[in-house]
Amino acid sequence: MLKQSVKIPLSKLGGERTFVKDPAEKLALSRLRVLKLAEEVGNISKACRMGNMDRTSFYEWKRRYQVHGLDGLRDLPPVVKSHPMQTPKHVEDAVLEMSRANISWGCKRISSELALVKLLVSNVTVQRILKRAGRATRIERFLALEEEALNGLELTPEQIRVLERMNPCFRERHVESSRPGELISQDTFYVGNFKGIGRVYMHTAVDTHGSYAFACLATDKMAQRAAELLWGQIVPFYEEHGIEIGAMLTDNGTEFVGNEDHPYESLLFRLGIQHRTTRVARPQTNGFVERFHRTILEEFFRVQLRRKVYDTLEELEVDLQTWIVDYNTRRPHHGYRNNKRTPYETVLRYLESVTQEA
Cα 70 to chain center, whole Å? Predict the structure, then answer.
């Protein structure tokens, strides 16, 4: 028998109608009618069909009615509680702090950097944290920089134009090379016009096997500067590790292409290095180094030039080389060539494989 503690006459639940304003009470009375109907007809299935209720729900409402009376037939309020897998607050704070300090970093880079300080958080979780904070995309982070006015620095019209334009760069072209030094991409990148210094160019080179990079600054893009990068940085590195340079890939700029007396061409000839050039007016052919230009623009120049005013080219060169060392030896790369290893670790891995085969 059902519990008879309800103070509502059964006659009111049957033929006579009651006018109830509260929707929750109205729903509870509707459920009670189904329970009483089942008791009267002696057939639960029939009562459920007539009351539009499934048998599983019928037994659940019957149990709750026997224990709590009419209040047991009301819907329970939602239970508010924290998710058992919610990211700890100190981890979220670390993600946001690193994003503010390095606005060009994406979720994968932040996840890798936090792992270096023993904070293990997936890149998907990092992206969710950034999205909740309104910093999910690169443009949102740059716009947040404007709002915060980092270190009280007022953005110049040129910087605002850069933020608005966010120059699209060429995607990385999959250049295949089987070992370090087999093919190195070299190019020249215009940095900008600095007060007291003049026009500044960056001469860069990237190994297409593991992304090991070289760079130097100059006030011109003459062939002598391109040759200096090759002779002063690239050749010594590969000679030190006993690796042969196979070919250099460049565009058709005057700093790379010329007659037999051309400084860069003649240096390649003396070193026995093959010179490959891209298609005319098709910089995508050298997309590997173009992708590196985007990385260094976003992670070094756009960040560093907001923090510090440079009076000499030498000061900027020192900070650039510090960043290059970090890029080559500390920064994990997520491409298929490196698979979360640094470029230098990729070089060492190749040397170990050669030693084992010997």
Answer: 54
CA distance 153 to 351: 47
Predicted TM-score of the model (pTM): 0.55
**Edge-to-edge strand list for the sheet holding 198-207:** 213-218, 198-207, 183-194, 247-250, 274-277
Domain ranges of the chain: 10-73, 89-165, 183-357
Nearest CA-CA partner of 297 in 267, 273, 263, 320: 320
Residue keyed to tokens 């290095």: 273
Give the DSSP H or E segment for 247: strand 247-250
Q: What is the CA radius of gyration of the chain?
A: 35
Q: How far apart are CA 51 and CA 48, in angstroms?
A: 5
Rounded distance between C-alpha atoms, residue 119 and residue 234, angstroms: 36
Angle at 18 between CA 13 and CA 24, to 5 degrees: 85
What SS3 class is residue 209?
Answer: coil
Classify domain 183-357 at the CATH topology level.
Nucleotidyltransferase; domain 5 (3.30.420)
pLDDT tens for 223-279 read 999 999 999 999 999 999 999 999 999 888 889 988 778 999 999 989 999 998 876
Q: What angle do CA 225, 235, 207 make, to 5 degrees?
A: 90
